[in-house]
Amino acid sequence: MAELLFRAWCAPDADVVASSAGTYALTGRGMDGPSLSALRGLGIDGSAHRARQFEPGHATGADLVLTATTEQRDLVITAAPSAFRRVFTLREFARLVPPGTAGADPALTVAGCAARRGTVPPVRPGADDIGDPYGGTTAQARRVAAEIGDAVRVVTAALGCAARPQPSPAERPA
User: What is this structure's pTM?
Assistant: First the structure.
Protein backbone atom coordinates (compact mmCIF):
# COMPACT_ATOMS: atom_id res chain seq x y z
CA MET A 1 0.00 0.00 0.00
CA ALA A 2 2.78 2.44 0.89
CA GLU A 3 4.43 2.11 -2.51
CA LEU A 4 1.18 2.68 -4.37
CA LEU A 5 0.14 5.61 -2.18
CA PHE A 6 3.58 7.16 -2.55
CA ARG A 7 3.48 6.79 -6.34
CA ALA A 8 -0.06 8.17 -6.56
CA TRP A 9 0.66 11.14 -4.32
CA CYS A 10 3.99 12.18 -5.83
CA ALA A 11 4.02 14.79 -8.55
CA PRO A 12 4.32 13.19 -12.01
CA ASP A 13 7.54 15.11 -12.67
CA ALA A 14 9.13 14.24 -9.30
CA ASP A 15 12.58 12.71 -9.59
CA VAL A 16 11.76 9.72 -7.38
CA VAL A 17 11.43 5.99 -7.84
CA ALA A 18 9.29 4.04 -5.40
CA SER A 19 9.30 0.27 -5.18
CA SER A 20 8.52 -2.21 -2.47
CA ALA A 21 9.85 -5.54 -1.31
CA GLY A 22 8.89 -7.69 1.63
CA THR A 23 11.15 -9.18 4.24
CA TYR A 24 8.87 -12.25 4.21
CA ALA A 25 7.21 -11.69 0.83
CA LEU A 26 4.83 -14.07 -0.86
CA THR A 27 6.82 -13.50 -4.05
CA GLY A 28 4.72 -13.03 -7.17
CA ARG A 29 1.41 -12.85 -5.34
CA GLY A 30 -0.97 -9.96 -5.62
CA MET A 31 -2.55 -7.97 -2.85
CA ASP A 32 -5.36 -9.48 -0.84
CA GLY A 33 -8.94 -8.37 -1.43
CA PRO A 34 -9.32 -6.12 1.61
CA SER A 35 -6.11 -4.22 0.78
CA LEU A 36 -7.22 -3.80 -2.83
CA SER A 37 -10.58 -2.52 -1.59
CA ALA A 38 -8.93 -0.02 0.77
CA LEU A 39 -6.79 1.32 -2.07
CA ARG A 40 -9.77 1.45 -4.44
CA GLY A 41 -11.51 3.63 -1.85
CA LEU A 42 -8.60 6.05 -2.31
CA GLY A 43 -8.85 5.95 -6.09
CA ILE A 44 -5.86 3.64 -6.56
CA ASP A 45 -5.86 0.39 -8.52
CA GLY A 46 -3.51 -2.10 -6.88
CA SER A 47 -4.49 -5.10 -8.98
CA ALA A 48 -1.23 -5.18 -10.96
CA HIS A 49 1.01 -5.07 -7.87
CA ARG A 50 3.03 -8.23 -7.19
CA ALA A 51 5.10 -9.00 -4.11
CA ARG A 52 8.85 -9.38 -4.34
CA GLN A 53 11.41 -10.43 -1.77
CA PHE A 54 13.79 -7.90 -0.25
CA GLU A 55 17.44 -8.23 -1.23
CA PRO A 56 20.30 -6.24 0.35
CA GLY A 57 21.02 -4.47 -2.96
CA HIS A 58 17.62 -2.79 -2.73
CA ALA A 59 18.83 -0.94 0.37
CA THR A 60 22.42 -0.27 -0.64
CA GLY A 61 21.25 1.28 -3.91
CA ALA A 62 18.51 3.44 -2.39
CA ASP A 63 18.61 7.02 -1.14
CA LEU A 64 15.87 6.20 1.39
CA VAL A 65 14.37 2.92 2.62
CA LEU A 66 11.10 3.00 4.54
CA THR A 67 9.71 -0.05 6.31
CA ALA A 68 6.40 -0.74 8.01
CA THR A 69 7.87 -2.04 11.27
CA THR A 70 10.95 -1.70 13.43
CA GLU A 71 11.55 -5.44 12.98
CA GLN A 72 11.68 -4.96 9.20
CA ARG A 73 13.91 -1.91 9.61
CA ASP A 74 16.30 -3.94 11.75
CA LEU A 75 16.33 -6.81 9.22
CA VAL A 76 17.19 -4.38 6.42
CA ILE A 77 19.96 -2.76 8.46
CA THR A 78 21.37 -6.18 9.37
CA ALA A 79 21.38 -7.19 5.69
CA ALA A 80 22.77 -3.85 4.48
CA PRO A 81 24.58 -2.12 7.38
CA SER A 82 26.02 0.59 5.14
CA ALA A 83 22.45 1.86 4.57
CA PHE A 84 21.83 2.49 8.29
CA ARG A 85 21.49 6.27 7.98
CA ARG A 86 18.94 5.86 5.15
CA VAL A 87 16.68 3.18 6.67
CA PHE A 88 13.70 4.15 8.82
CA THR A 89 10.20 2.97 9.50
CA LEU A 90 7.68 5.07 7.61
CA ARG A 91 6.33 6.57 10.83
CA GLU A 92 9.81 7.09 12.27
CA PHE A 93 10.90 9.09 9.23
CA ALA A 94 7.71 11.18 9.32
CA ARG A 95 8.28 11.83 13.03
CA LEU A 96 11.93 12.80 12.57
CA VAL A 97 11.52 15.26 9.66
CA PRO A 98 13.34 18.39 10.82
CA PRO A 99 11.04 21.42 11.18
CA GLY A 100 11.18 23.76 8.22
CA THR A 101 12.74 21.26 5.80
CA ALA A 102 9.63 20.47 3.77
CA GLY A 103 10.54 20.73 0.11
CA ALA A 104 14.27 21.11 0.84
CA ASP A 105 16.88 18.95 -0.85
CA PRO A 106 15.70 15.34 -0.27
CA ALA A 107 19.23 14.14 0.60
CA LEU A 108 19.49 16.85 3.26
CA THR A 109 16.09 15.88 4.63
CA VAL A 110 17.14 12.21 4.91
CA ALA A 111 20.41 13.24 6.57
CA GLY A 112 18.50 15.53 8.92
CA CYS A 113 16.20 12.69 9.95
CA ALA A 114 19.18 10.43 10.61
CA ALA A 115 20.83 13.15 12.69
CA ARG A 116 17.68 13.55 14.82
CA ARG A 117 17.69 9.88 15.88
CA GLY A 118 18.27 9.79 19.60
CA THR A 119 17.79 13.54 19.99
CA VAL A 120 14.00 13.65 19.91
CA PRO A 121 11.88 12.25 22.74
CA PRO A 122 11.48 8.47 22.51
CA VAL A 123 8.19 6.92 21.54
CA ARG A 124 6.57 3.94 23.21
CA PRO A 125 7.62 0.55 21.82
CA GLY A 126 5.67 -0.26 18.66
CA ALA A 127 4.59 3.36 18.07
CA ASP A 128 6.58 3.53 14.83
CA ASP A 129 5.09 0.28 13.53
CA ILE A 130 2.26 -0.11 11.03
CA GLY A 131 0.41 -3.41 11.06
CA ASP A 132 0.17 -5.78 8.12
CA PRO A 133 -3.35 -5.86 6.71
CA TYR A 134 -2.73 -9.10 4.78
CA GLY A 135 -5.44 -11.63 5.56
CA GLY A 136 -7.44 -9.20 7.69
CA THR A 137 -10.78 -7.57 7.18
CA THR A 138 -11.57 -4.66 4.90
CA ALA A 139 -12.01 -2.46 7.99
CA GLN A 140 -8.50 -3.42 9.15
CA ALA A 141 -7.07 -2.71 5.70
CA ARG A 142 -8.74 0.72 5.69
CA ARG A 143 -7.23 1.53 9.10
CA VAL A 144 -3.79 0.48 7.84
CA ALA A 145 -4.28 2.54 4.66
CA ALA A 146 -5.15 5.55 6.84
CA GLU A 147 -2.02 5.05 8.97
CA ILE A 148 0.16 4.66 5.89
CA GLY A 149 -1.52 7.61 4.18
CA ASP A 150 -0.89 9.89 7.15
CA ALA A 151 2.83 9.08 7.07
CA VAL A 152 3.12 9.15 3.25
CA ARG A 153 1.65 12.68 3.18
CA VAL A 154 4.36 13.85 5.58
CA VAL A 155 7.12 12.04 3.67
CA THR A 156 6.13 13.31 0.22
CA ALA A 157 5.91 16.87 1.55
CA ALA A 158 9.26 16.53 3.33
CA LEU A 159 10.94 15.21 0.20
CA GLY A 160 9.36 17.95 -1.92
CA CYS A 161 7.64 15.53 -4.27
CA ALA A 162 3.99 15.82 -3.19
CA ALA A 163 1.64 16.32 -6.12
CA ARG A 164 -0.90 18.19 -4.01
CA PRO A 165 -2.27 17.98 -0.49
CA GLN A 166 -4.03 14.65 -0.07
CA PRO A 167 -7.07 14.16 2.14
CA SER A 168 -6.73 11.71 4.97
CA PRO A 169 -7.83 8.22 3.89
CA ALA A 170 -10.36 8.43 6.70
CA GLU A 171 -11.90 11.46 4.93
CA ARG A 172 -12.30 9.73 1.56
CA PRO A 173 -15.50 7.81 0.82
CA ALA A 174 -15.22 4.04 1.25
Answer: 0.89
Question: Burial level of 142, CB count in 10 A (0-12/13-18/19+)?
Answer: buried
All domains in the chain, ordered by first residue: 2-163 (3.40.50.2300)
Taking the C-alpha atoms of residue 154 and residue 158, their distance in angstroms, rounded to an integer, is 6
> How would you classify residue 30: left for phi > 0, otherwise alpha for psi between -120 and 50, otherwise beta?
beta
CB atoms within 10 A of CB 155: 26
- pLDDT tens column, 83-125: 999 999 999 999 999 887 776 789 999 999 999 998 998 899 9
Give the whole-angstrom CA distance, residue 129 versus residue 92.
Answer: 8
